[in-house]
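Narrative summary of target 7.
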Amino acid sequence: MTIDRAGLAGFLRQRRVALQPEDVGLVRGARRRTSGLRREEVALLCNMSTDYYTKLEQERGPQPSERLIALIARGLDLSLDERDHLFRLAGLNAPARGPTGPHVSPGLLRILERMDDTPAEIITELGETLYQSPLGVALTGDRTSYRGPDRSIGYRWFIDPAARQLYAPEDHSFHTRVFASGLRQIATLRGPGSRAAHFVNLLLAQSKEFRQVWEKHEVAIPPVVKRFVHPDVGTLELHYQSLADPERSHRLSVFTATPGTESHEKLQWLTAIAATSPTHPTPYQ
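Modeled conformation, tokenized:
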């Protein structure tokens, strides 16, 4: 496929002008005269230099990579149809629309972006973290930086002992059942050639504990309350709720504490810690 520089530039300009600062979590200044977003604002949202983004709008520069086009699609809050169109304009094949793809729907992402005071994350059906709220990072650490099967918390649970350090030891056996039963449900749903089935085969070969719990044939045990053991604030007992995006098989997972409890007070302390953090994680690419 050949890049359509004029079409790409025109589409980017149109989408940039159509977006308002408040649409993407930016503050509108009192003296703002620009219609839509500025180029430097889009570049910031897309995690790239203003110079590089400007060249795309001016029909200049090298052909962008798939990774850069994916960043632009997220930064400009594109729908799946718009994302696919952007890829084709850039001379690239659009990513498959499989249920576990990393492209998060704009609506689900907007909800997450408004959760500054709540631990929350967007995950795939395999437990791969795509985005986290600032308080989510403060609670569990940056979970977006893993690659390969390690991206899945369910896989890490059986392979990496460090994955269990954040959870109360007396709850480990229950979490073992939760992760194994959830993986069984997805592997059955997606079939023998799926990524879920691949994870199952890896774990059967590498983890005796997984083989033992797998033989129980349990399916989808839902976690309701999770106890976290945080290095700074101690044990927190948090209620778990989930909002599903059935089209993409993504979930927005939210953790809350009962008002007036010790866990609620500790969550406020954690909010203060999160506010002093100098950086936020880069979403998974």
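The CA atoms of residues 159 and 206 lie 8 Å apart.
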